[in-house]
Amino acid sequence: MAATALSLSVCIDPKQHQRFRTHLNLTKGLSFLSSRNPLLSLHKLDRYHFNCSLPSSSSTNSVTPAQYYSFLDDPFRGSRFLTNAELEKLKALESFVYIQELESGSLWIRVMRTEEMDLTVGLLALSFAESMFMSLGYEALLRFFVKQYLIERRAVMPHAVTLVGFYREKGGQRGEELAGTVEVCFDKTGASASPPTPRPPKNSPYICNMTVTKQLRRRGIGWHLLKASEELISQLTSSKEVYLHCRMIDEAPFNMYTKSGYKVVQTDSIFILLTLQRRKHLMCKKLPVFNSYPESDMSDSDEVLPS
């Protein structure tokens, strides 16, 4: 997908293993998850196949009692005391569902649940391996680092959250399948300790680590992951300036962000190449007080995604 440089970095240098925190530097200082993270063929994810049931309604952001999920009981949430304001936001995350009927099928986006973490890890790890031209021999190592990152990010909810999208094709024989994922940071508490350059304001909402399953691209899924992220930001924060990163080489994601209203505010110096990183744009969009999204054709934008 295209969107922002990942807040994850992975370090494969054996001397650095003991110093791992939440970043992934695949090579020394190399940032991981950029604006484009193509995924490997979906059949490689078959072992992570996950079945779920889509709600019958396609126009509501509320879930039925059978779908209700409590993040207070999440084993990865930690024991941090939550304020009343945080509890209210956590409840909003529990009930958030973004549903969209696409021309080719149905898309359902909501907050990732504990039992879906390994599925999401597999998607991200395969995406990172391909985008970094890494041997699949590193997949197990990538999965380890990605899972540690997701667990750490889970502990800062409701200040940051990972969304997952499930897709069901019209008339398809298979059930729902993982279509993509995206991370949303709402404020300074949820911001990464070491964000990619150019660095966004820490107290502003930030969208990153977006990925669309390779075989499900060009269906508008990336566009709707972005739209769902913006809708959630509008519901949970007062800040209307949203930031994301896009690698300069990722033309399709850049076009999608531009059409969505994002503008370049800063670009990496050419000297960033000395650290073996791709140059990135920092882009910003000012959300309207009342969001209304044009039903534009964004089916080609999915070639973009993950960042």
Strand and helix map with partners:
Layout: H1 84-95, E1 97-101, E2 105-111, H2 117-131, H3 139-154, E3 160-169, E4 177-185, E5 206-212, H4 221-236, E6 241-247, H5 251-260, E7 263-267, E8 280-286
Parallel strand pairs: 5-6
Antiparallel strand pairs: 1-2, 2-3, 3-4, 4-5, 6-8, 7-8
Helix pairs in contact: 2-3
Order of helices and strands: HEEHHEEEHEHEE
- The oligomeric state is single chain
Output the number of helix runs.
5
Strand order of the largest sheet: 1-2-3-4-5-6-8-7
Category from helices, strands and their pairing: alpha+beta
Based on DSSP secondary structure assignment, what is the total number of beta strands? 8
Per DSSP, what share of the residues sits in E-state strands of 2 or more residues? 15-25%
Task: Provide the gyration radius in Å.
Answer: 18 Å
The biggest sheet, with number of strands, parallel, antiparallel or mixed sense and barrel status, is: 8 strands, mixed
On the 0 to 100 scale, the average pLDDT is 77
Catalogue the unreliable spans: 1-66, 291-297
Inertia-based shape: globular
